[in-house]
Design brief:
The chain is an alpha/beta fold and about 300 residues long. The protein has one domain: TIM Barrel (Alpha-Beta Barrel), CATH 3.20.20. It is about 40% helix and about 15% strand. It contains ten helices and ten strands. Helix 8 links the parallel strand 6 and strand 7. The protein starts with a helix and ends in an 8-residue tail after the last helix.
């Protein structure tokens, strides 16, 4: 989560587990849809204890009930090789890579040097994905700020993706999945869909974060609007204190999200893919915390409110 969580805080004044196939006691049409979809449980590398080796981190995630992990960009070849070996030994799949330079060096910048640095970071992320067998790289496509207008963010980012990133993604067979993450860009599901559609490429899709849109929308609406454009999903909750104008990122099931309705939305679009928990590392014993998160995810996938007593 790194730069992403730091950014979000700064704007406040804040294959052992196997495939999950949820089954419902009452077989309504929605239940049948949900039971027919295949969701793969994943966690983000930043949720695993940094003090442990990659092999031990991956084993902990697997033992907690996750079958995959999302990595972040790794620039050192030796470290990337270690990660590949650790994933192989643990049986935990690396399914996606979170690019790490798009905040510091947005591709929507008007500075050619900044854009070149961002492109270089994405190229590293794409090579990481190819090495690890991941099929997707997450990219925050643009940042609207005092120097970058909304229109410029749209046109510049699309041009860079189309001309400088898409050829490599196509060659490596790795999807570029763009995400909305409080970057003052792609502020509605209709707009998000239009942005992706304009590439007219199977190698550019959407990375949808359930928690990111709650401040100004309903995630179930975004899911149904984006539909098959969604390549991957991040899961976290969001809770707004309307009286004090503050918000927090609580554990899954403890915020404002209507999780059963979000699950129905994913069933409606027949989403079959990876859902990655993107939370803090938690307090106390990390292994117990991960098992609790995994259990909450199981309840969500079963169409229930994901609070575990």
């Amino acid at each position: 989560m790194g730069d992403r969580r730091a950014f979000l805080k700064s704007i406040t004044a804040a294959a052992v587990a196997g495939t999950v196939r949820p089954a419902f006691a009452a077989q309504s049409s929605t239940a049948q849809k949900t039971a027919s979809t295949t969701i793969h449980k994943s966690t983000l590398i930043s949720m695993l204890p940094k003090a442990l080796s990659y092999a031990d981190r991956f084993t902990m995630a697997r033992d907690a009930g996750f079958e995959a992990v999302e990595m972040q960009t790794i620039t050192k070849d030796e470290e990337a090789a270690e990660i590949k070996e650790a994933a192989k030994k643990s049986g935990l799949r690396i399914h996606s890579v979170m690019n790490m330079d798009h905040w510091r060096l947005p591709i929507s910048s008007g500075d050619p040097e900044v854009v070149s640095g961002s492109v270089k970071g994405m190229e590293t992320s794409l090579r990481n994905a190819a090495l690890w067998g991941a099929d997707t790289v997450l990219l925050v496509p643009a940042v609207v700020d005092a120097q970058t207008s909304y229109k410029d963010a749209w046109t510049r980012s699309q041009r860079v993706i189309r001309e400088r990133l898409l050829p490599m993604a196509r060659d490596l067979k790795v999807i570029i999945a763009v995400e909305e993450v409080w970057n003052k860009f792609l502020l509605s599901p209709i707009e998000f869909a239009k942005y992706v559609d304009e590439f007219d490429s199977p190698w550019v899709k959407a990375y949808f974060d359930v928690g990111n849109v709650v401040f100004y929308g309903f995630p179930q609406d975004w899911v149904r609007t984006l539909g098959p454009r969604i390549a991957k999903v991040h899961l976290k909750d969001f809770k707004l204190d309307r009286q004090n104008g503050q918000f927090t990122w609580p554990n899954i099931g403890e915020g404002d999200i209507d999780w059963p309705e979000v699950r129905r939305a994913f069933a409606d679009i027949n989403y079959n893919g990876y859902m990655t928990t993107e939370l803090s590392r938690g307090n106390g014993d990390p292994a117990s915390y991960l098992k609790d998160v995994s259990a909450r995810l199981d309840r969500f996938l079963a169409g229930e409110k994901p609070v575990v007593s």
